[in-house]
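Milestone 3.1: sequence recovery, worked example.
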């Protein structure tokens, strides 16, 4: 298929739309990079939401991006909700102008605020649409647009509960696969990079690209468990928003805790970790599968349809991770991680089972489908 695509469509035009969080943006960039690798002549443009992370990360990755005036719809009466109809109308109009000007051969939706208006307009204009659904429970936008998509790439099995079975492709979620190469050989480099001890077990704590209040607060309360554990050290990514506040805590002052606002070298963090604590967003879970390390998942309750809990259960049902409810994080998060560290056989089993769930070459499979649609 790839060979025919390269022969017939040398310069396809492709729009990738969506964002709002790193969990949407980084897979989208991975797809774009793979499209460009398979078809160097492809012209790729992004459509995102103004003021969101994609407006910074996408240009840094080397792609142009247009922004829509759009935001999420909250399930309560707020000024933002009252503005939503106006924002939606504005975004539909802007998306129509972008698509008419750029004239893409395919539009790819990766979820997030901007994805809905862009895919809706593309479908109305007769432009082939591909949806990439990262979660085990799809968001309302993708469920509404599924009937208009040509293909739907998913990361979990049994998604025909929500999507037409004949459109589904089980591809997995795109991750930066290169960062997981030779992790075991990177441990020494990681210890130096983070200034941590080679003789201690390491817990890596992070709350996604933006940080997570609950996880950070649980770390503030962790002194009672960590103060007497001279055999344990912690690498703690707070998120830039929380860093100044969190570094004032007693836990951050412990000799075995290294606190950072953001970690660019995630490969080294994964290489160093003996146990990982994080949220249960789609990108986080996909990367944890590739890392093959035991994980304690603390799903965020502040997401649509509680999809992070459903993501986490997809792992815990297979005994591939441990889940701690958000409301129980202060009391149970660190004890759960220490219990794993203190049980090497349990840690080994969790690492093996989560690694078995990884899906290789997801970006390559999705890119091939995008280019195949461009050929039609």
């Amino acid at each position: 298929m790839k060979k025919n695509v390269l022969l017939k469509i040398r310069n396809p035009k492709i729009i990738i739309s969506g964002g709002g969080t790193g969990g949407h943006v980084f897979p989208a960039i991975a797809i774009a990079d793979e499209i460009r690798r398979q078809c160097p002549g492809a012209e790729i443009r992004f459509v995102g939401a103004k003021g969101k992370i994609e407006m910074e990360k996408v240009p840094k990755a080397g792609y142009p991006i247009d922004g829509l005036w759009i935001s999420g719809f909250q399930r309560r009466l707020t000024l933002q909700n009252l503005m939503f109809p106006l924002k939606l109308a504005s975004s539909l109009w802007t998306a129509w102008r972008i698509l008419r000007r750029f004239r893409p051969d395919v539009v790819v939706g990766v979820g997030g605020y901007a994805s809905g208006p862009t895919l809706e307009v593309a479908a109305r204009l007769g432009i082939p649409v591909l949806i990439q659904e990262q979660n085990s429970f799809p968001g309302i936008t993708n469920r509404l647009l599924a009937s208009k998509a040509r293909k739907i790439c998913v990361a979990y099995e049994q998604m025909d509960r929500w999507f037409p079975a004949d459109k589904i492709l089980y591809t997995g979620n795109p991750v930066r696969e290169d960062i997981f190469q030779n992790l075991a050989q990177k441990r020494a480099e990681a210890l130096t990079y983070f200034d941590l001890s080679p003789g201690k077990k390491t817990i890596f704590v992070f709350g996604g690209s933006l940080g997570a209040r609950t996880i950070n607060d649980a770390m503030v309360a962790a002194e009672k468990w960590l103060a007497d554990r001279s055999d344990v050290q912690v690498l703690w990514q707070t998120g830039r928003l929380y860093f100044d506040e969190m570094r004032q805590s007693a836990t951050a002052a412990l000799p075995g805790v290294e606190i950072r606002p953001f970690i660019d070298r995630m490969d080294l963090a994964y290489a160093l970790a003996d146990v990982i604590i994080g949220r249960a967003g789609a990108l986080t879970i996909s990367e944890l599968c590739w890392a093959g390390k035991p994980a304690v998942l603390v799903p965020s309750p502040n997401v649509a349809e509680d999809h992070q809990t459903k993501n986490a259960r997809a792992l815990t049902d297979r005994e591939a991770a441990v889940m701690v409810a958000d409301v129980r994080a202060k009391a149970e998060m660190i004890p759960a991680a220490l219990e794993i560290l203190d049980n090497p056989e349990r840690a080994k089993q969790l690492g093996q089972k989560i690694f078995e769930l990884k899906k290789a070459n997801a970006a390559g499979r999705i890119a091939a489908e995008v280019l195949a649609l461009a050929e039609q």
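The first helix runs from residue 2 to 8. Confidence is low (pLDDT under 50) at residues 1-7.
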